[in-house]
Amino acid sequence: MLAKRIVVPLSVLTVGAAAAVVGVLNADAAVATSCSVTYSVVNQWSSGFTGDVKIRNSGGTAIDGWTLGFTFPSGQKVASGWNGTWTQTGSAVTVKDAGWNKTLAAGAQVALGFNGTWSGSNTAPTGFTVNGVACGGAVATATASPTATATPTASKTATASPSASKTVAPTATSASPTPSKTPTATATATPTATVSKGVENCTDYAALVRGKYWVNNNVWGKADGTGSQCVWENGLSGDNLSWGTSWTWAGDNTKVKSYASAVLGWHWGWKATGTGLPVQLSAGKAVNASWNFQVTQTTSNVMNVAYDLWLHDMANPDWQNNPTDEVMVWLYKSGGAGPVGTKQATVTIAGTTWDLYKGNIGWEVYSFVRTSNTSSASLNLTDFTNDLAARGWLAKTKYLSSVQAGTEIFTGQGRLDTTAYSVKIG
Q: What Pfam families does UniProt report for this protein, alphabetically (predicted)?
């Protein structure tokens, strides 16, 4: 565990569909002599969809600064996007590089993504340009089959507007520590019945909706390394969700590459009803969360397994409303991974000791790090927000908008299997 941390700025921008176009093309950028664009719809539901766009520099010289342009043919609207600055005027969409991905070497590719809304038909756009030059390449017109159980509560939805980067300086990346024994004070989640593993989905930002939960293949930090990640869900047994993820990540072992997670509630938008969220902290409602999981490390990993709670100062945040506070509850860590900020105290909650860290990445981040690893816990997460409120750090006027449970991976190869995960509000 390290007290000192390095925080890098948010590198992925999310903008609304109504944002004004400041400049249609980047006049200072090198002209793309040859380019290709691949477009596909990777997830679709009743009124929304997730799109994937890949730009390849098929020329012989580097592109230093790029702006993608295309036109939606069927009235689709961009709700939010990542890995670039997305704007839309009428049916015309413009995406400018995010700065960190502005240079495209000859033969290199950059992947973008967005969430949008549609009605009637969801025909794929054509006529892609980069820096004003027409691009060729394949355009996937097939759309993903709608998920029958997905009923977003708002027309603007987002499955993957990544959180700000959090970095650590691990004390060791080669060792894979053995988890400590679980104290008897920690209750055990009720496992689901044995089920076969669901179908893997390895698409970046894939959203697998199941009842009030959805599994998010969130790879918000992948630009800081190389690798891939897959997710699957095995279904519900009562209120318990069974799901899993596997990963292979290499690169900078001080930066998070991904956070595959089971989401209840908001994540830059809404995807399911019946969540019981948002709920104001002043209401004093219990947030009872149970989690049974198993970590398999194929290689040594720098990683953690943690709850991630998001809070807003409004009752009904949408995709464009960043949180004001983030509360993480770490149950398991490996390879020297540590949270953002500096250690403030050691506290006892639910009969277990936790190191409390405080930091800021554009919003306040509070991390409760369990002093010994566990793979099973039943907690009232309100106990953690109450601790912060008692310190005067978190106002009870704030609204809890999301409860997520997943694994932050810095580097390594492995797998997380959740046999039972449930959250009950009130």
A: CBM_2 (PF00553), Glyco_hydro_12 (PF01670)
Question: What Cα–Cα distance (Å) separates residue 236 from each residue in 20, 43, 105, 191, 418?
Answer: 43, 21, 46, 11, 12
Return the pLDDT at 372.
97
Q: Which CATH number fits domain 35-134: 3.30.470.20, 2.60.40.290, 3.40.50.720, 1.20.1290.10?
A: 2.60.40.290
Per domain, the residue ranges of the chain are: 35-134, 207-425
- The per-residue pLDDT of the chain, averaged, comes to 81
Q: Does 207-425 carry CATH code 3.20.20.120?
A: no
Q: pLDDT of 309-335, one tens digit each?
A: 999 999 999 988 999 999 999 999 999
The 10s digit of each residue's pLDDT in 341-372 is: 999 999 999 999 999 999 999 999 999 999 99
